[in-house]
Specification:
Distance between the termini: 28 Å
CATH architecture: 4-Layer Sandwich
CATH superfamily: Chorismate synthase AroC
Order of helices and strands: EEHHEEEEHHHHHEEHHEHEHEEEEEEEHH
Bound molecules: ligand EPS
Largest sheet: 5 strands, antiparallel
Helix content: 25-40%
Low-confidence stretches: none
Mean pLDDT: 96
């Protein structure tokens, strides 16, 4: 139903975003989009670049007087750092051969691929002898574009009472020991925390391990959770592989640079337990009202190990997606590699980088999950204009088996 494309190099003039398939008549709050962009820039462990950038969308098309037209929406996000990179990254002018100092390093010293990065495979794939031709687009700078697009998806879904939250549950060896909080409490606490952790004592330990990694010139990954409340029953499907929502969501989250694993609900832990300990038993309350959110009628569960998905569809419970991101592959204490020109043993290139991006991942994952849910929501309820979608959604909510 929707398609989106992003373009732009990390140190080029900026990012370009196109969203096709957004229905007409959706009111867009630009401050809200920019607020989402600012959330992604935060987090203890981010590098020097985030002190330079102030990400904001510059609307180009598809929105008139604050409402969507049903035509392609496009935005630009400027890279403020472009100012410092024009020589090295210019689209038209040739590379100057007289750069000196740090600039010379960024311009001419790009032949030692970082283990764990796209550098080597990308160079072999595209026949590049300058790794900057790979690393500029492989950079997670692109995730700013995803967050802006996801902000539109969230604003659409918000019209139907669908709400998002996310938080970090592990940084390196420090793990959050379980929690029992409402979505609004999770949001409130994680938003205040510099590592998006809901528990202050655990947050302190997380900050400490990141600080330790910074001192050791190393990087750290983590695990985070995205939670979505208010989804109607029956988004996605079970009839073909490509309609199953679990697969679509996992693919979306795995598309975020450095994600190495995705779980739904109890995830891998289900494999260690008996069926009787895993499946969420079904109950019915005749007067139904207190369990009747989003057309569930009086059906309810006491647990949510399935994480809101059964048979490739939403089941009306909270969606729970957990993802693991590996540590950033640019290390200030570089790992062994081979120079692609000389074929001699070397150490990897060192670029300015972040030490931990798990808190920022939360925001990006919310965005790609929102875009995926936006797509299946339109698939179920129509896609041209908000009136038709609203009517179809209401019919579905009112329906009782
Ligand atoms: C990144 C390296 C760093 C990050 C960047 C991703 O950028 P720089 O090389 O300019 O210091 O800060 O992330 C962003 C720019 C961003 O907006 O998230 C990398 O190599 O992937």
């Amino acid at each position: 139903m929707i398609r989106y494309l992003t373009a732009g190099e990390s140190h080029g003039p900026g990012l370009t975003l196109i969203l096709e398939g957004c229905p007409a008549g959706l009111a867009i709050d630009f401050d809200e989009i920019n607020y989402e962009l600012s959330r992604r820039q935060k987090g203890y462990g981010r590098g020097g670049r985030m002190k330079i950038e102030r990400d904001k969308v510059i609307p180009q098309s598809g929105i008139r007087h604050g409402k969507t037209l049903g035509t392609p929406i496009s935005f630009l996000i400027n890279n403020r750092d472009w100012e410092n990179w024009q020589d090295v990254m210019h689209s038209v002018n040739p590379m100057p051969d007289d750069l000196t100092g740090q600039k010379a390093k960024l311009a001419y010293d790009n032949t030692r691929p970082r283990p764990g990065h796209a550098d080597l495979s990308g160079a072999i794939k595209f026949h590049h002898d300058d790794l900057r031709n790979v690393l500029e687009r492989a950079s997670a700078r692109e995730t700013a574009a995803k967050v802006a697009l996801g902000a539109i998806a969230k604003q659409f879904l918000g019209q139907f009472g669908i709400e998002f939250g996310s938080h970090v549950v592990r940084i390196g060896s420090v793990e959050l020991e379980g929690y029992d909080l409402s979505l609004s409490e999770i949001r409130e606490r994680s938003e205040k925390s510099e590592v998006r952790c809901v528990d202050p004592a655990t947050e302190e330990k997380m900050v400490a391990v990141i600080r330790e990694a910074i001192v050791k010139k190393d990087s750290l990954g983590g695990v985070y959770e995205v939670l979505v409340d208010g989804l109607p029953v029956g988004l996605g499907g079970y009839s073909q592989a490509d309609v199953r929502l679990d697969g679509k969501l996992a693919a979306a989250v795995m598309s975020i640079p450095s994600v190495k694993g995705v779980e739904v609900g109890m995830g891998f832990e289900t494999a260690r337990r008996h069926g009787s300990e895993v499946h969420d038993q079904i109950y019915y309350d005749k007067d139904g009202a207190k369990h009747s959110s989003k057309n569930k009628g009086g059906f309810y569960r006491k647990t949510n190990n399935a994480g809101g998905l059964e048979g490739g569809m939403t089941n009306g419970e909270r969606l729970v997606i957990r993802a693991a991101n590996k540590p950033i592959s640019t290390l200030y204490q570089p790992l062994d590699t081979v120079d692609i020109k000389t074929k001699e043993a070397a150490v990897a290139i060192v670029e300015r980088t972040d030490n931990c991006v798990t808190p920022a991942h939360c925001v990006v994952a919310e965005a790609v999950i929102a875009l995926t849910l936006f797509d299946v929501f339109l698939d179920k309820f129509g896609h041209d204009n908000m009136d038709d979608i609203q009517a179809a959604w209401q019919r579905h909510i009112d329906f009782e088996i």
